[in-house]
Amino acid sequence: MVERGFFDPGDDLAADERVMAAARPWLKNEEIRFILVHIDQVDFAGHNEGGPRDERWNQAAGRADAYLAEIQNYLDLSQDVIIITSDHGHILAGGHGGYDADTLAEPLVLAGKGVQPGSYPDVEMVDIPTTIAALFGARLPAASQGR
User: Fold this and answer.
1) How far apart are CA 19 and CA 146, in angstroms?
2) By three-state DSSP, how is residue 64 classified?
3) pTM of this prediction?
4) What stretches of the chain show up as alpha helix (H) in DSSP?
5) 55-84 pLDDT tens trace
6) Could you give phi then psi for residue 73, rounded to 5 degrees?
7) Are the CB atoms for 6 and 19 separated by under 8 Å?
């Protein structure tokens, strides 16, 4: 059940700053068991600022990395888990496109309690909710297709 929420319709640096401002109190609250923080400025740079070849992409990625470092500082990875992923990649010129490997590859990085360190073969989007359920010790829905 969602008890608290914050949504910002923006997708740039200013929106990410508002998202982080909303997330910080929740990250400090040890009673909250699950927090989703959506940092969107790298995607914004991919669509609107020239994509991966543009310096603004690297700047957005650096700011996103700083937010991730801040989030990690709130966590105790002996009892918490952090999951880092995206919904798609970008073509080098920016934006989405076709079946290029760059647009189909998404990172998935997990660290913390219950995570077995190592490199794993390709993961699909349907695997992410299944993985989260397993880390929570929840039963998987019968219709779940992930692994």
Assistant:
1) 29
2) helix
3) 0.86
4) 13-28, 41-48, 55-73, 101-104, 127-136
5) 999 999 999 999 999 999 999 999 999 999
6) -65, -20
7) yes
